[in-house]
Amino acid sequence: MKKLLKPRREVGIVGYGAYVPMYRIKAEEIGRVWGVSSFPIQEKAVPGLDEDALTIGIEAARNALRRARIEPALIRAVWFGSESKPYAVKPTGTVIAEAIGATPDVSTADFEFACKAGTEALQTAIGFVGSEMADYAMAIGADTAQGRPGDHLEFTAGAGGAAFIVGEKSSETVAYFEGSYSYVTDTPDFWRRQHEHYPRHGNRFTGEPAYFHHIVNAAKTLMEELDLTVDDFDYAVFHQPNVKFPLTVAKILGIPKEKVLPGLLTGIIGNTYSGATMVGVSAVLDIAKPGDRILCVSFGSGAGSDAFSIVVQDAIEEKRELAPKTMDYVNRKKYIDYALYAKARRKFIM
């Protein structure tokens, strides 16, 4: 049985962009409040009072448009993946499409699949363009991740996102997709019920049965279907709930950590959930050379992984300079204390 997901016509990334909020809180500041002295990351990005997953998505989408150099009206789909949408009932995609000038001849939808909602939207965009239903489609992954005060998720739950505009492979695409693959099971490792403000996690499910099982199987199957090995890839980007997990999965697959570190940003911006894998790929595209091959594997609790093989093209050399780079946002920072962080994240219910 054929497992590889590959469209009828080859498609690639016409434009890409990321956005990370300016505010940061150090893990040691959170630890000071809760009496914790060891931390899974160094610091994380915090959205400002006027920022949410929607505004992050708009900024990333605008950067993607700058690099795509196409009219917004040519984009026939704007699909937004997030688990922290500002509205419980009202689409986010419509607001983003309006903000970038893509309405009214456009399809919009909000995707949910925990942290792989963004790559789920990307998978759909590849199929939409690959089937020739549209010339261009945009996929966005963005989150302002939630963590209960004092819970270990509070140390890693960050904010950020990235957007990719997909089009037919050409000299204008900065990279193209060789193929993709999705691996999904019903594994209850992480969830948030309706009306609950913070997510819960099943500790014994989060590691081996969830994250590692799905990412490793997705990556191995993709490589087998494409007849590739880890040696064929110059970079690898995995979903990054912390720093340890992506490096561990790389070791399992036999991938040197030097191929993972360029896209591993969780240690300095936190886990951006639906944005994590896509922001990592954006950071790699900012430095990759034509001909480089990128292995990208997301993970979403519940649980599933999307794996992609991405090959960088010549257009990257020119287009990467048309918008702020990922590390420009990462390096732009202003530190806040726990009180301002709690206010910004609305942890105090008035």
Describe the structure.
The protein folds into two domains: 11-173 and 319-341, Thiolase/Chalcone synthase (Peroxisomal Thiolase, Chain A, domain 1); 178-316, 3-Layer(aba) Sandwich (Peroxisomal Thiolase, Chain A, domain 1). Helices cover 32% and strands 23% of the residues. It has eleven helices and 14 strands. The chain has helices at 27-34, 53-68, 93-100, 117-130, 203-226, 244-253, 266-269, 276-285, 316-319, 326-331, 338-344; strands at 11-19, 23-26, 43-46, 75-81, 107-111, 136-144, 159-168, 175-184, 190-191, 200-201, 235-238, 293-297, 304-312, 334-335. Helix 2 (53-68) packs across helix 3. The chain is globular.
Please give a quick description of this structure.
By secondary structure, this protein is of the alpha/beta class.
Q: From the coordinates shown, what is the CATH architecture of the largest domain? A: 3-Layer(aba) Sandwich
What is the CATH level 1 assignment of the largest domain? Alpha Beta
Between the first and last Cα atoms, what is the distance in angstroms?
56 Å
Helix/strand order = EEHEHEHEHEEEEEHEHHHEEHHEH
Look up the CATH topology of the largest domain: Peroxisomal Thiolase, Chain A, domain 1
Query: Low-confidence parts lasting 5 or more residues at pLDDT below 50?
Result: none
Helix content: 25-40%
In total, the number of domains comes to 2
Strand order of the largest sheet: 5-4-6-7-1-8-13-12-11
> How would you classify the helix and strand content by structural class?
alpha/beta
Report the strand count: 14
Mean pLDDT: 94
Number of helices: 11
State the CATH superfamily name of the largest domain.
Thiolase/Chalcone synthase
Q: What percent strand? A: 15-25%
Pathway: Metabolic intermediate biosynthesis; (R)-mevalonate biosynthesis; (R)-mevalonate from acetyl-CoA: step 2/3
Binding site for (3S)-3-hydroxy-3-methylglutaryl-CoA: 36, 115, 156, 206, 239, 271, 301
GO molecular function: acetyl-CoA C-acetyltransferase activity; hydroxymethylglutaryl-CoA synthase activity
Protein name: Hydroxymethylglutaryl-CoA synthase
